[in-house]
Structures are given as C-alpha cells and as structure tokens.
C-alpha cells in the first residue's frame, strides 16, 4: 500500500529548503485528525524529500523529532509508521523539552544527578528506583558454604595471584552457558573481570581515547555516563524506539560525526526493559561493521528472560570480532562477589593488557566459588526460580501502578529482567516527584539521570525485584504524590 502524500507547500525558505518544523507540524496534525492511523505507513524519507523538493537530511531531521516525540517509529526494511497510542508513550519527552541534536556532547554529571544516585543506594530509603537484585532470592547459604569448601579444596589457588585471564574452569563454564545466547566461543576468548562495570570500562579504554565520541542508546544507563565522563569522551545519544536503538538515527549520526564506539543493552534494557529483536541485532552489527565501529554489549540481564528461550546476544551475530561482549553474575547470583567477564573479540590483547594494569586479576576465592556453583550448585534450577519470581513481581508492580497512579500513566511490560520504565503524561516533572518521595522515605530514579539533555522529565525507573507489603505501600504513596503533580 502506498502511503498518502503529505502535502506540497510553497512555503519555503532560502533555495527552496522547507523548514523541518513545518514537516513536523503537518505530520503531527495529520496523525491527530486521523489522516494517518496507528500502524499506518507514512511516506518514506526519500519520497517526502522528492514531494517537498527538500533535502533528505531535512526530512530525516523532521522524522527524528517525530520519532523522539513517540508519534512515529521506524520498522526494519519497511519504513516509518504511526505508533500505537501505548507505544507513543514509550520514550515520550516532556512538552517543550529540547529535541536531540545529533552532535557529540561532552559528559558532565551535575551534583543533582550524583545526589539522586546516592539516594537510590541509601539503605534507609525504600529503594523503588534502584537497579539491584533481590538479595533474599539469591543462594546465599550455598554460596557461603562453597566459598569455605573451595578455599580448603584449593588452598594455594585461593590465595595466589590467578591468571589475568581468570581461572580456566570458570571461563570454560561461561563458554558453555553462552551457547544458549548463540555464541560459539573458546575459553581463551574470555577474560574474567571484577563485575560487568569493569568489563564495559575496559572495553571503552580498549577502543577509545580521550576526546573520542561514543554512540549510546538513550535513555542511558547512568553508570555508562560516569565511565564516559571519567575517560573524557563525548556522547551521541541515539533514541530508542519501540524495538530498541533507532538504527536510522544511528546511521544518520555516524554519517554526520566520527564515532569511535557504540554501547547498548539489547536484552531487557536498563532502564526501558526492552528486548531488541534478532533482526535488529544483526542489522546493528552490520551497520557498525560497515564503518569499522566497535560495539560494546552489556548483557547482564540476558539470563533473566521470562520465556522458554534465552534471547540471543548481539555477539552471536558478530563475524568481524568487533563486538566486545560484557556480562556478570551480579544480577543473578552474587553482586558482592564482583565476578564478570568480557569476550573482546579482536581487542583481546588490548583488554588483557589493561586488565593487568588495572588490578592484575579478579579475586580467586569468588572465581572458585562461582565455578563450583555453575558446575554442581544447580545454577539452571536457581535461574528458573528467579525468572518465575521476577515475572510474578513485575505483574504485581504493573497492577499496583495501574491502581495507584494517575490516568495517563504508561508502563510497557518487559519480557525479562526486573526494571520498569514509567512514562507519565507530558508536562510531568519526575524530579519533583523524586524530591517529594524523599520526604516520604522513598527513592526513585527520575528520568533526568538517564540523559545529558532535558528529555525524559516525565519518566522514571522502578525496580520490581523487590516486593513486599512495604513496597506496595510505597507505590501507593508514590501514586498519591504523582497525582498532586498532574497539571
């Protein structure tokens, strides 16, 4: 079916170039009055460029702004379509907030954002906005017993410097598990790290230098921003649509700017909870490979799927050695053990060198303990239980948000993990909600900590891993506070 032409206008400025604001306004109006219905295709970038006698870049700029506003979405190899009403709310930004410029930005995390992150980790507050797993669901007693028994079983290994690559038995077990993610690797392709944060930081150090530019999906996991700030890098925020990172925007940004790396969380994204389809994963790999741009993949939530099949890693589509795959056991087993890993592809030697400079190696006792648990501790059974509990708790939190929060609140149910991204009506200020909640002894993660811009002011993150009567009462309080902020 051919999309209906938008219009032909004589209202041009300078050389016949139509202002992109006119295209934005016209498409908005046509969606509003029903000329284009949800799910209907709108003219392609090139078609509209030809119709309007304007440049492709002008139309692309207009479509980027419409997509960021949640009105349209790009579908792979198909074009742009009007979003369904619920999907229009996924990444909607506050009315009047600046729209994203596809130019690199230096990272400076302000004091307010740092205070929010400190509040999120404050044990005296009800942690509705944290990103931590539920410790009560982890096999603490078994792990502690294994920690003691493995230290006795391997007394020298438990106190001596391990290999910088990490214990081979652990790397072997990880390689076996990665088969479920579609990755065919060897133990020597893996380096054990002190958690996933160290893995992603090592990856950044391996592929970037001071002043380089990193493309990153937006909203952004705040720890990525802190690492990027520490390294003196610049950021290109690439908006997510309903299927993950917008590849049209990424392609456009790469053509406009030198990009030295890309970072994404494809499986159960933090904070969106979204899952990137396999076709998009493959397209992302091919797009970046065309420009020789390394991709840093954080897959720390991949094992927490609610379905029968674990989602594939982006790494499974990598034929070029350009994907640096990072993960850990922090969300599924023991965050305090700080056991993670990286499969850095063609950058293995560089990452190994950086690891030895940073801390020589990851601690032996926890490596030995995790190895034993993977081998004989029933990790798969533990994962099945964890997935079922988190799926139930996601459902409970979604129900509570539906009952307690004001009309117009949107949350997309995730297919895994335990993170919920709450989108309030336009004009809502989640930072004000954060401040009000603090006075009630509750912490949330307001949208401003997930971006360098003024977007996502009407959004915030919730953690469904933690569920109790206290959590439900806190949600009821939060909903009551939110209603006071609706204009």
UniProtKB/TrEMBL annotation:
Record keyword Lipid metabolism present: no
Question: What Pfam families does the entry give?
Answer: Aminotran_1_2, GntR
- What SMART domains does the record point to? HTH_GNTR
Query: Mind telling me which InterPro entries this protein's record contains?
Result: Aminotransferase_I/II_large, HTH_trans_reg/aminotransferase, PyrdxlP-dep_Trfase, PyrdxlP-dep_Trfase_major, PyrdxlP-dep_Trfase_small, Tscrpt_reg_HTH_GntR, WH-like_DNA-bd_sf, WH_DNA-bd_sf
GO terms of molecular function: DNA binding; DNA-binding transcription factor activity; pyridoxal phosphate binding; transaminase activity
Q: Start and end of every HTH gntR-type domain? A: 17-85
Annotated keywords: Aminotransferase, DNA-binding, Pyridoxal phosphate, Transcription, Transcription regulation, Transferase
What protein family does this chain belong to?
Answer: In the C-terminal section; belongs to the class-I pyridoxal-phosphate-dependent aminotransferase family.
**What is the protein's name according to its record?**
Winged helix-turn-helix transcriptional regulator with amino acid aminotransferase domain, GntR family
This chain's source organism reads: Geotalea daltonii (strain DSM 22248 / JCM 15807 / FRC-32) (Geobacter daltonii)
